[in-house]
Amino acid sequence: xxxxxxxxxxxxxxxxxxxxxxxxxxxxxxxxxxxxxxxxxxxxxxxxxxxxxxxxxxxxxxxxxxxxxxxxxxxxxxxxxxxxxxxxxxxxxxxxxxxxxxxxxxxxxxxxxxxxxxxxxxxxxxxxxxxxxxxxxxxxxxxxxxxxxxxxxxxxxxxxxxxxxxxxxxxxxxxxxxxxxxxxxxxxxxxxxxxxxxxxxxxxxxxxxxxxxxxxxxxxxxxxxxxxxxxxxxxxxxxxxxxxxxxxxxxxxxxxx
Length: 257
Ligand code: NDP
Ligand code: 8X3
Prior knowledge:
Helix content: 40-55%
Structural class: alpha/beta
Number of domains: 1
Largest sheet: 7 strands, parallel
Shape: globular
Number of helices: 8
Mean pLDDT: 97
Bound molecules: NADPH dihydro-nicotinamide-adenine-dinucleotide phosphate, 2-hydroxyethylsulfonic acid
Strand content: 15-25%
């Protein structure tokens, strides 16, 4: 067993998959998770040439499945140096009155409750590792800056930001670090999921923007996890150079009575 074992939620695409590749290259043992079994097992088989990999086919919203999968982790993966809470999604970008409540439920259940389950269930293993252990959460710029259609997605990421900061208070003395990575526009299947598989909207989202790529995020996460053990990166916000903030929007239809 190496002393560097990492648990990644949502490793079947995008940031999670890129993180798995990045850390495997450096010999970290991996627990990779996701719902799409075929992709998960293909990644496990590919990375097994580099390191020890354990694949868990898991829906992070399923608390009892999470409890039993984590309770029965093989002994060699039982002590964790890192947890990347990455599984997450946005569904739609329509104005709130037109949204489906099921989509809101799904974002809350995945981005908030799923992250809480993995964090709470894995905390004892991170604390057992102690100094140098890290939890890295995937927040978003949407957690800090609202935009039309960000409503529940942005609110889930605001939760992740505040939870990350609060958790640090409770972990003081344990040596376990907590970081919230807050990316802006990144090219991944995220936007296909958000727009229900609409390739034209996906293409329009990234056209000419030189968006951040998943490998860029993996490099950032790798840097965060490899800081000296006495340093905690609290929050790290990153955007492509092409992206900045919009101005405030003002409705000018009001007329004095
Ligand atoms: P992807 O859609 O490429 O990847 C999302 C991953 O999450 C997949 O591996 C997916 O696996 C997993 N996932 C989703 N729902 C569940 C679930 N219920 N149970 C288990 N796994 C799940 O998106 P990204 O890589 O871009 O996004 C990763 C994280 O980064 C998300 O939290 C996202 O909110 C955040 N983020 C993304 C940005 C972007 O612009 N792309 C910017 C800022 C933050 P599977 O479907 O197999 O279960
Ligand atoms: C994803 C980034 O700008 O689409 O978290 O909300 S954004």
